[in-house]
Amino acid sequence: MTSGVPTAAEPHSDPAAVDRVRRALLAAGLPDTVRTLDDDVPTASAAAQALGCDLGAIANSLVFDLDGGPLLILASGAARVDTKLVARQLGVEKVRRASPEFVLAHTGQRVGGVAPVGHPKALRTLIDVHLEAYPLLWAGAGDHRSMLSITYADLSRVTGAEPLAVR
After folding, report:
1. What is the DSSP letter of 64?
2. 3-state class of 57 per DSSP?
3. Of 165, 163, 167, 120, which Cα lies nearest the Cα of 142?
4. E-strand spans in the chain?
5. Residue 88: Cβ within 10 Å count
6. HEC letters along 40-56
7. Which of 41, 55, 73, 156 makes the best surface tag, with the fewest CB within 10 Å?
8. Do the Cβ atoms of 113 and 146 come closer than 8 Å?
9. CA 50 to CA 43: how far, in whole Å?
10. Residues facing residue 75 across a β-bridge
11. Could you give the C-alpha distances from 29 to 32, 89, 157, in angstroms and in order?
């Protein structure tokens, strides 16, 4: 981070991004539930194993390109997002997986550590309705080692997410 701006290829720890997530939680009236782990957890499977929770309780923050703008989908770690289904439900032609550079530009966070909050600007957000089955969710908190815990209701509220079946 020699220029002060993170790049997609830099180390997986980003205290500034994690701090932005903490501040976003507090600003929303939520407790700071960020937990920094000893090792990287860049995948839902790795996070679930480290946290001792069900894979489905991991709320992946996935950024997609929707007509040149960002679309954040909070999806259960237990399944893949069906982009064709999402596109049909949104009434658009295509929803594309975003490049790491696109994700970083719109979230200020690297792929593998993207949080649902703490971005430079609010993103249009969808939340997987399957996540509602879990009393407590875990989501990335700004880097590859940090996770936050949150309820479905609070996650929906703090992100302004639209509930949608994404798989």
Report:
1. E
2. helix
3. 120
4. 35-36, 58-66, 69-76, 96-97, 124-128, 137-140, 146-150, 162-164
5. 12
6. CCCCHHHHHHHHCCCHH
7. 55
8. yes
9. 11
10. 60
11. 9, 32, 11
Q: Residue 138 and residue 82: Cα distance in Å, rounded?
A: 21
Cα 121 from Cα 142, distance rounded (Å): 15
Whole-number Å distance between alpha carbons of 70 and 77: 20
Give the integer Cα–Cα distance in Å for 81 and 147: 21
Helices (H), 79-140: 83-90, 100-107
CB atoms within 10 A of CB 29: 9
Mean pLDDT of the region 93-103: 96
Q: How far is CA 13 from the centre of its chain?
A: 16
In eight-state DSSP terms, residue 3 is: T
pLDDT in tens, 27-76: 999 999 999 999 999 899 999 999 999 999 999 999 999 999 999 999 99
7 residue type, one letter: T
Q: What is the pLDDT of residue 11?
A: 53
Given a cut of 50, whether residue 143 has pLDDT beyond it is: yes
The answer to whether residue 95 scores a pLDDT higher than 50 is yes
E strand or H helix at 115: none
Task: Tell me what pLDDT residue 3 has.
Answer: 40
